[in-house]
Design brief:
Blueprint: H1 6-9, H2 25-30, E1 42-44, E2 47-49, E3 56-60, E4 71-76, H3 80-97, H4 102-118, H5 120-131, H6 135-155, E5 162-165, E6 172-179, E7 182-186, H7 194-206, E8 209-213, H8 219-232, E9 239-241, H9 247-256, E10 260-266, H10 269-278, E11 285-289, E12 294-298, H11 304-316, E13 326-332, H12 336-350, H13 369-384, E14 388-391, E15 407-410, H14 417-420, E16 427-433, H15 436-443, E17 448-449, E18 451-455, H16 459-468, E19 473-476, E20 491-492, E21 495-496, E22 509-516
Parallel strand pairs: 7-8, 7-10, 8-9, 10-11, 12-13, 12-18, 13-16, 15-16, 18-19
Antiparallel strand pairs: 1-2, 3-4, 5-6, 6-22, 11-21, 14-15, 17-20
Helix pairs in contact: 4-6, 4-7, 4-8, 5-6, 5-8, 6-7, 11-12
Bound molecules: nicotinamide-adenine-dinucleotide and 4-oxobutanoic acid.
């Protein structure tokens, strides 16, 4: 589904081993080729340490969310005291790391990229265990995640300054870009590796040091990356990874701590707003990659078969649990019936729900009960207001408590919750439209603006709609936009800052100007 597919980025052999649907998590862990990747303690100042109060939390497999074999591991729950130690060690490390050359940091990042390739199969299995996505998607995520290290390895030696002519004949203005300092990184569970590498790659390329809190649902992938960073030769203190069950306490600390100069967060808009208010006391530089409500528009001149494929990829990737997943599917009234029937037919012929490590699985479970509740409430609200279930519509408790059928709803309108809120689950709501003006206005009728998609064969329409949609990223005639070269980020309440791409460097640097006088 990703343009950075495993086949064209990472050459590691796809050595999938099939598991029975109900194999315990520990059996899968014990099958990993590189057991050193399995880490359950925090990584501070180059050392693996338990939490200062010895507390731990459970990491569970969402595909087996009840019964034997569910628990994957007990992981140290690092306290705010541990975080302060990590922040101080990152500050100590920064004094040397900021002086290293871009070429040196490029080599470190390239080492890490290669190590991820070598361990791609094991890293993918860890992702399946803790996130639930199918193995092929997890394998693709490792490729996608590692591509940020490759990308930023290539950017690290190219963090250029500038020379600006002065108004004074005897002066010149020199502009340099310097690393901002210690960065706090807070990431979600839906891409346990890629949301970290997209931030860590840019930070390390510029000479920043980092303190990383992975989501408590998916700390094992993050700790495996910390181990690989150690192997890649990152100096002690330059990368610290601290799992914790105290998200609110750690978030507040990171925002209020004066040593941390930047916080980068990926997650929901509500938590983003809270972090922004907590950061006001230190005027912290922030990057916010927040929630979306992506429109997907099929115009009457679209190639319908391609639009169906694009919609399936964009809506149901990771069972609808990505921030750029389609949330509202607008279809022109003249092709609505044909599109709806082709979409439901293709889904019913190709989808197999199940454990991500089982043979043939195309879609895995939701992450937890909170997500299931949102999916159920959106379906129930929409059907109570007149929407029709065209496909799916039910839980699949026979597979596990977190499984839900891929669902298509017809006749969705603006009054329904699903139109106005991000479902973050496998429900595609179809909405009919008549004119370009109407659909652009409907698509923009939301407080958030992360991604948008549309299919049209008319080049004039392509430019017009691309200009009119209020989003940070657009897929025109494609439902797959993610790659390291893309400036990733949103507008409106989807946040600010751009990750990946050449712009990704900007958020981790500050501009310093030197007026050089007396040059006559
Ligand atoms: N824009 C993006 O790139 C992107 C990527 C993934 C997810 N998301 C958004 O995230 C949401 C789904 O994920 P979620 O429900 O787990 O989001 P969430 O905001 O609840 O959690 C995201 C992360 O923030 C942490 N967190 C929770 N409360 C916190 C607090 N008070 N202080 C600091 N950290 C805190 C969580 O532990 C987790 O690691 C969706 O809205 C989705 O669009 C956005
Ligand atoms: O969910 C957020 C990130 C999705 C992506 O990078 O493709």
């Amino acid at each position: 589904m990703l343009r950075n597919s495993a086949s064209n980025i990472v050459k590691a052999t796809y050595t999938r081993r099939l598991y029975s649907t109900y194999d315990s998590s520990s059996k899968v862990l014990s099958s990993l080729k590189n057991k050193d990747l399995i880490r359950t303690q925090g990584y501070i100042n180059g050392q693996w340490v338990a939490s200062s109060d010895n507390s731990t939390f459970e990491v569970n497999n969402p595909a087996l969310a009840s019964g034997a074999g569910t628990k994957i591991a007990d992981v140290s729950s690092m306290t705010t005291k541990d975080y302060v130690r990590a922040i101080n060690s990152a500050q100590d490390a920064f004094s040397d790391f900021k002086k290293t050359t871009g070429r040196y940091r490029s080599d470190l990042l390239m080492n890490l990229y290669r190590l991820m390739q070598e361990n791609q199969d094991d890293l993918a299995k860890l992702i399946v265990l803790e996130n639930g996505k199918p193995y092929a998607d997890a394998f693709g995520e490792v490729a996608y995640a590692s591509s940020f290290f490759q990308w930023f390895a290539e950017e690290a030696p190219r963090v250029y300054g500038d020379i600006i002519p002065s108004a004074l004949a005897d002066s010149k203005i020199l502009v340099m870009r310097q690393p901002i300092g210690v960065c706090g990184i807070l990431t979600p569970w839906n891409f346990p590796a890629a949301m970290i590498t997209r931030k860590l790659g840019a930070a390390a390329a510029t000479g920043c040091t980092t303190v990383i809190k992975p989501a408590s649902e998916t700390p094992l992938s993050a700790l495996a990356l910390a181990y690989l960073a150690e192997q890649a030769g990152f100096p002690k203190g330059s990368v610290n990874v601290l799992p914790s069950s105290d998200a609110a306490g750690v978030g507040k600390l990171m925002c209020e701590n004066p040593t941390i100069k930047k916080v980068s967060f990926t997650g929901s808009t509500n938590v983003g707003k809270l972090l922004m208010s907590q950061s006001s006391s230190t005027l912290k530089k922030l990057s916010m990659e927040l929630g979306g409500n992506s429109p997907f528009i099929v115009f009457n001149d679209a190639d319908i078969d391609k639009a169906v494929d694009g919609a399936i990829g964009s809506k149901f990737r990771s069972s609808g649990q990505t921030c750029i997943c389609t949330n509202r599917l607008f279809v022109h009234e003249s092709i609505y019936d044909e599109f709806a029937s082709k979409l439901t037919k293709k889904l019913s012929e190709t989808v197999k729900l199940g454990n991500g490590l089982a043979d043939g699985t195309t879609h895995g479970p939701l992450i937890h009960g909170k997500s299931m509740n949102k999916v159920r409430s959106h379906i129930e609200d929409a059907t109570s207001k007149g929407a029709k279930v065209l496909l799916g519509g039910n839980k699949r408790e026979d597979l596990g408590v977190n499984f839900h059928e891929l669902t298509v709803l017809g006749g969705v309108t603006q009054e329904m919750d699903i139109f106005n809120e991000e479902t973050f689950g496998p429900v595609a709501p179809l909405i009919k439209f008549k004119s370009d003006e109407e659909v652009i206005s409907l698509a923009n009728d939301t407080d958030v603006g992360l991604a948008g998609y549309f299919y049209s064969s008319n080049i004039n329409r392509v430019f017009k709609v691309a200009e009119e949609l209020q989003v940070g990223m657009i897929g025109a005639n494609t439902g797959a936009i993610s790659e390291s070269a893309l400036p990733f980020g949103g507008v409106k309440e989807s946040g600010f800052g751009r990750e990946g791409s050449k712009y990704g460097i900007d958020d981790y640097t500050v501009v310093k100007s030197v007026v050089l006088g007396g040059l006559d």
